[in-house]
Amino acid sequence: MATTTVKKVLVVGAGIGGLTTAAGLVRQGVEVEVFEARPSPGRLLTGGGFMLWHNAFLSLRRIGLDTAVAADAVRMRVHEFRSDRGRRLARWDLDGPTRACGAPACALRRSSLHKILTGAVGEHRIRLGARLTGWTQDDDGVTARFADGSAARGDALVGADGLRSAVRSTMRRGFEVPPRYAGYTAWQAITRLPGESLVPTGTFFNLWGKGGLRFLYCRLSENEVYWDAITSDRAAARLDTVRDSPRAALAAAYRDWPDPVGEIIASTGDDALLPVAIHDRPPGGGWSHGRVVLVGDAAHPMTLNLSQGAGQAVESGVVLASMLGACDRRDVASVLSRFEEVRRGRAADMVDTSWNIGRLGLMHGTIPSRLRDLMMYTFFDSVARRQSYSLMLDDRLQTDPVPIAGSAGPVPDRRGS
Q1: Cβ–Cβ under 8 Å, residues 273 and 188
Q2: Boundaries of each FAD-binding domain copy (predicted)?
Q3: Whole-model pTM over 0.90
């Protein structure tokens, strides 16, 4: 008897969520076509560094990619919170959770993860310069149409095309509330800065200041440091980027911050700086419609404060791939609806928690900022840490009913490139 399982899935968007979904499906023998609007491979490898926490590696393990990703990353052993006066507010040991769950927390280049996911999918399955213009569906499948006049047909369509998703817009017939602006911008960069004394390998530094300023940094390799300067709108209004270069304006804004903030900014070229206005969407439903489903930022975009945007895209992609890979073609709509039920609550908790943490960074006055620092000093090593890990390693991470075989090797301990 002929098989009735899903044969072909169309994925729109070659970011982390789309490629993770595609990699999981390819691993199960499902035919996949990935369509990406950006026209060249170089355009896909933008962005700086970021953190992938334990939960992301647990998901990557299920599609056999955890070891490869960890081998191209730097394992983080400490997450340290400080004030803009250099006072330590909290220090989280990450080795304990790594041993407990069997998966690391790592810092890496976004391009590194993208290359590994691309290799798992296969470049021949990724079509660049394919801008979606719309899709239609019927009882037997879904058809996607593109700006060059071409079309593709599959059993399901995955919208993984980001914050301003064309798949999502078509699903809502153009009636969509704009993304929610968080009130701050992240100035992201990777700079060449050797020296363990300046930035020790294995520690992720998270500095909180007054005036709507924050600063994050960690080492990516023996010679490279990733950093984020987070500026509220009120703080950004004081940056004179007309007279000064962006780097010089940031150097002036952070001139009184403790070392090595000044050295990190001074070492960075202006062309390395990427300003990103931070948005999310309030939690809500409507990720699936018949044979079409959203994943990653198209479904649940979130602010950067938990470093879980990529992690949640990976989780959702792995769960979606496992459910679709074992799905009867006649049951695609119900399975996609079930996927949303499985993932919506966990993603919503991440979105809300990340948004609320971000509000703490908008404090401008000295007294409110110092009270926030006191709260962090009192509670972040205990209550906040427990709540963070309870959310990160929630049982819902394992609610996927269909496991995908993956690697289960030891956690690499990589200190540099």
Answers
A1: yes
A2: 8-353
A3: yes
What is the rounded CA–CA span in Å between residue 52 and residue 11?
23
How would you write the pLDDT of the chain (417 residues) with one tens digit per residue?
456 889 999 999 999 999 999 999 999 999 999 999 998 766 555 668 999 999 999 999 999 999 999 999 999 999 999 999 999 999 999 999 999 999 999 999 999 999 999 999 999 999 999 999 999 999 999 999 999 999 999 999 999 999 999 999 999 987 888 999 999 999 999 999 998 999 999 999 999 999 999 999 999 999 999 999 999 998 888 887 778 899 999 999 999 999 999 999 999 999 999 999 999 999 988 999 999 999 999 999 999 999 999 999 999 999 999 999 999 999 999 999 999 999 999 999 999 999 999 999 998 889 999 999 999 999 999 999 999 999 999 865 554 544 554 433 434 444 443
In the block, residue with structure tokens 């940056």? 239
Question: Which residues are catalytically annotated?
Answer: 217
Cβ-proximal residues to 17 (8 Å cutoff; 6+ apart), any chain = 160, 295, 296, 297, 298, 313, 314, 316, 317
